[in-house]
Design brief:
Blueprint lengths: L17 H33 L2 H7 L2 H31 L7 E8 L2 E7 L5 E6 L1 E5 L4 E7 L4 E4 L7 E3 L5 E5 L5 E7 L11 E7 L1 H12 L8 H12 L29 E2 L4 E2 L2 H14 L13 H13 L2
Parallel strand pairs: 1-5, 4-10
Antiparallel strand pairs: 1-2, 2-3, 5-8, 6-7, 6-9, 9-10, 11-12
Helix pairs in contact: 1-3, 5-7, 6-7
């Protein structure tokens, strides 16, 4: 899929969605308007200090002081205010009906992502990664399980707070396929800085295929190492906190792992998705992200750790 330049995957200055376009335009207009006001004030200040005596006398006149000190700033700032309010109103207005609903819940410190169909029925659950179809509007319903978080994908839309006991809504529309980084924009605890996620916009046909595959149960292990890893998963009671659909693992305290091997990253965007990263996270999660709710399984044998990581990687 097309990727933005690395420095542009989390930038409000490179909008790739409808709301982000409006927000970027608003920012540019505000910057130009504020800059023009600033330069005008500085120019008159310099003239008042160093200009010809005739100009300085004019600047001391009552009419000029009223016009330049009251009328001009009120008029200029009023124009900018009206523009900002009109842009905000446009952001609030619903466009085309959403093609999909996604419920996102902020946790400490990861993201629970649930896809819901038109009838309000759950399609499937994933974590720390949101996939959408390019060109299709998606309704995001945002809440939190603990403290206040803030959902922000700068390339696609603005910030929306996630408040305990309350659901906020946001529309996402990506103009074209790509990968966009999002993060929590409200300080939420010690690991706030390690609470990222990706929004992956796919071609519509590719997205439909992906959603259908993600709704299926987890694949069974196909080799001896992954089979041993599955046994280790249940031996060490991982299923009490995690769900793997199609197995007896039905825990809900941690992320759904049904297709965790197909995600772009691990641990809310801070590790690459690889067997080595899986092993490191399982053995040292409290070292990598201190205070998270998953204990470090540092007493696993090397063989069990390697097998468990291989099983996680096999869940495509």
């Amino acid at each position: 899929m097309p990727l933005l330049a690395r420095g542009n995957i989390q930038s409000a200055l490179h909008p790739r969605g409808s709301d982000a376009d409006r927000i970027a335009d608003l920012g540019i207009v505000m910057f130009i308007g504020g800059g023009a006001i600033f330069l005008t004030v500085i120019a008159f200040a310099l003239l008042a200090l160093f200009g010809p005596e005739r100009v300085r006398r004019m600047l001391r006149q009552h009419a000029f002081i009223v016009g330049g000190g009251i009328v001009f700033p009120v008029a200029a700032l009023s124009v900018l205010l009206v523009y900002a309010l009109l842009t905000s109103a446009a952001l609030m207005r619903a466009g085309n009906p959403p093609a999909l609903r996604i419920d996102v819940t902020g946790e400490m410190w990861w993201w629970r992502v649930v896809y819901v169909d038109d009838a309000g029925r759950r399609i499937m659950e994933t974590a720390n990664e949101i996939r959408i179809a390019a060109g299709r509007p998606v309704e995001m319903r945002l809440t939190t399980a603990d403290v206040i978080h803030s959902f922000w994908v700068p390339n696609l839309a603005g910030k929306t707070d996630m408040i305990p006991g309350h659901v906020n809504r946001q529309r996402l529309v990506a103009h074209a396929p790509g990968v966009f980084r999002g993060e929590c924009a409200e300080y939420c605890g010690a690991q706030h800085a390690k609470m990222a996620f990706e929004v992956v916009a796919l071609e519509p046909a590719a997205f439909d295929a992906w959603l259908a595959s993600q709704a299926r149960p987890a694949p069974s292990p196909v080799d001896a190492l992954a089979l041993r890893g599955r046994q280790a998963f249940f031996t060490h009671d991982c299923g009490k906190c995690h769900t793997i659909r199609g197995t007896e693992a039905t825990g809900t305290a941690g992320p759904d792992l049904t297709h965790v091997g197909s995600r772009l990253s691990l641990a809310a965007g801070i590790l690459p998705n690889s067997i080595g990263a899986f092993g490191g996270w399982i053995a040292a999660s409290q070292h990598i992200k201190p205070g998270n709710e998953m204990p470090s399984f540092d007493r696993l044998s090397a063989e069990d750790l390697r097998a468990l990581a291989a099983y996680m990687e096999s869940l495509q």
